[in-house]
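Thread: Newbie trying to understand structure tokens

Hi all, I'm a second-year student working on a class project, and my supervisor (Dr. K.) asked me to get a predicted structure for one chain before our next meeting. I've only ever worked with sequences, so writing a 3D structure as a token string is new to me. If someone could post the tokens and maybe explain what I'm looking at, I'd be very grateful. Here's the chain:
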Amino acid sequence: MQLVSTSPRRSIRLATMVVALVAAIAAALVGAGTASAWGPPANQAPTFRQDYINGYGMPSPLIRTWAAQGVDRTKAPTVIFLDGLRATNDFNGWERDSNVAYLSKHGYNVVMPVGGQSSFYADWQRPSSSAGQKYAYRWESVLTGSLPDYLTRRGFFNRTLVGLSMSASQAVIVANNNRDKYARVVSMSGFLHTTAPTMPSLLRAAAWDSGHYNLNDMWGLYPNIDSFTHDPTLNLYKMGGLHMWIYAGTGVWGNHQPPGANNLDFLTTGLNSTAIESVSREQSGTFATIAPAAGVILRTSFPGVGTHAWGYWQDQIWYIASTGWFYNG
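---
Reply by user tm_fold:
Sure, no problem. This is what the structure looks like when written as tokens:
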């Protein structure tokens, strides 16, 4: 079944965007940030807690949580935020560069796993020696095993998995395949057709730029079966009944441009974030067009402005919360 249009006009437009994105990869911003982490001072986050959970052979992931304040946590929606390409081992980018942890003051359980740079939240076949790894990533095992088990013990139910950029495609696959553990999923500026022409090379370049990770160590030399089974577009036929929200900007500058140390840096980072977001919008829009026919219960946000930057993602999370979608999708 052919799921994506291959008209000459669409192909030319996509190719143009991909060329621009490849040129921008060396300075890609996903998951980067300079702001201070939100907390958690006790007087602002009395429900904050952090724990280590089973890493299935990789170092135990740190999970930072903010239980809902003023309500029964077992009845509150739980929002799990996955990080972007440049995830670090101290804080999740959502904590460092946004204020979404404050959802806990508004009746939400907030969950942020820490780590996973260039991991694509997958189970890798072997450590990536070029990145100096001594262990293989096991993030898919975490997302399907130890993390939901931990959340169940904490009384965190009614869960939404939020994937950002690098993590969006895997969030969709994991949520769809584990509906007993995740009630809905958000794709935030994601790439939902990861095996589209040139995309494997693009993702390979991004992972190499962010930590010298070799994607051959993830699922093997492309093409391989795991790449296709983890491509949301190719697996749409399995997604009937999935509750999903898709967001992507246009690449047009608005109110939240990435910061720069000087005018030239500001211009460079802004253009890079435009190129990246343009590809996300192309793929997200195509996916959204065909998803309802596959039975996906879909909400979308495709505003006229927005680049690949934290301010837009933060605003979108608060908008989704304002609609009540995290409660009942």
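A couple of things are worth pointing out once you decode it. The chain has one domain: 9-328. Residues 1-37 have pLDDT under 50 and may be disordered. Feel free to ask follow-ups in this thread.
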